[in-house]
Write a structure and sequence with these properties.
4 domains, alpha+beta, 284 residues
Length: 284
C-alpha cells in the first residue's frame, strides 16, 4: 500500500529565507525554486505576508498613460466630453482620474457658444412664428387700389417727408429715407400723382467712411436711373467718438428724393393730410 502521507513544510524555518529572497528582488517563482520545497500558491503567500513585491514584477497598468494624458488635458481647461473624444475612454474613467483637479473656467467664447446652443431651438421656433405672422399679414393686404395708394402716400410723406414750419416756410417736396421699400412706395405714389420723371432728382446721403460708390450704384439701380445722373452725394463727417451700428456691407446711407417746382404739390399734400385727420375723427 503506497504511503499517502505528505510532509508539511516548516513555515517557521522557511519564512526567514523567503523574506530574504523577496527583499533581494526575486519573484515568487524564483523564491519557490530557491527554497526547493513544494509549496502551494497559498502557502507561498503565507510565507511572504507583509512583504511587497519588487517593482520589476508588477504588471504595468495599460491606462496609466491615458490617465496622465487626461489630467494634462483637464489642466489645460478641457471638458469631460472633450477628453473622452480625444482619448477614446469612458466618461466614468475620466471622472475618476481628474475629479481631484479644479474645475476649469470656461472662456467667454465657450460660454457664448453654450448659450447660443441652448437657446438655438427657441430662437428657431420664434423665427418661424415671426415669418408665418409676416407672411399672413402680407397676404391680407393684396394689391392696392389707386385710392389706397394715394392715402398711403400722403401719410408716408407727412411722416417722413420735409415739412414747412411757421417760422421757416419751405414749400417743396423733399423726401429722405434709408428703407428701399419706402423709397419704392414713394416713387409709385409720385407716378400716381402724375409727377414727370424729369422733375424728380436723387441724391445719396451717407457717412464718409462707408463705401460711397457702392451705395450710389445700389440706389441708382433701385430707382431705375443711371448712377451718373445722381446729384452730388452728401457726405457726413465721421466722428471717431461715436459708436455707429449702421456699418458694414448692408449700410447704404439714405436716398434723398426732391421734386422740382413742387410748391403747389406740397400745399396739396398738406391739405390732403388735414383731410385725412378730419376724416379719421369719429364720434365717441
Amino acid at each position: 500500500m503506497p504511503n499517502t502521507h505528505r510532509e508539511h513544510p516548516d513555515y517557521a524555518s522557511l519564512r526567514p529565507q523567503a523574506v530574504a529572497l523577496r527583499r533581494a528582488g526575486l519573484s515568487r517563482r524564483q523564491i519557490r525554486d530557491r527554497l526547493g520545497t513544494p509549496l502551494t500558491s497559498a502557502a507561498l503567500t503565507h510565507l511572504l505576508e507583509g512583504e511587497p513585491p519588487p517593482e520589476w514584477t508588477k504588471r504595468p497598468n495599460a491606462k496609466d498613460d491615458l490617465r496622465e494624458k487626461a489630467r494634462e488635458l483637464r489642466l489645460t481647461g478641457k471638458t469631460y466630453d472633450e477628453i473622452v473624444a480625444e482619448l477614446g475612454v469612458s466618461k466614468s474613467s475620466v471622472s475618476l482620474w481628474v475629479r481631484d483637479l479644479p474645475k476649469p473656467r470656461k472662456s467667454p467664447e465657450a460660454m457664448h457658444q453654450m448659450r447660443e446652443a441652448r437657446w438655438a431651438p427657441y430662437r428657431a421656433a420664434r423665427d418661424r412664428a415671426i415669418r408665418q405672422t409676416r407672411a399672413t399679414a402680407t397676404g391680407e393686404i393684396g394689391e392696392l387700389t389707386d385710392r389706397e395708394l394715394f392715402l398711403a402716400g400722403v401719410a408716408l410723406y407727412w411722416a417722413e417727408g420735409a415739412k414747412s414750419k411757421a417760422y421757416d416756410r419751405r414749400e417743396s417736396v423733399n423726401f429722405v429715407n434709408s428703407d428701399p421699400g419706402v423709397i419704392q412706395t414713394f416713387q409709385a405714389w409720385l407716378r400716381l400723382l402724375g409727377v414727370e420723371p424729369e422733375r424728380v432728382t436723387f441724391r445719396v446721403m451717407i457717412h464718409e467712411s462707408a463705401d460711397v460708390a457702392a451705395a450710389e450704384r445700389y440706389w441708382a439701380q433701385l430707382v431705375g436711373v443711371d448712377a451718373a445722373t445722381l446729384q452730388r452725394t452728401t457726405l457726413k463727417k465721421h466722428n471717431p467718438k461715436t459708436t455707429r451700428k449702421n456699418v458694414g456691407e448692408g449700410y447704404r446711407g439714405c436716398l434723398v428724393i426732391r421734386v422740382l417746382q413742387s410748391a403747389e404739390l406740397y400745399r396739396r399734400i398738406e391739405g390732403w393730410w388735414y383731410g385725412i385727420v378730419l376724416g379719421a375723427k369719429r364720434p365717441a
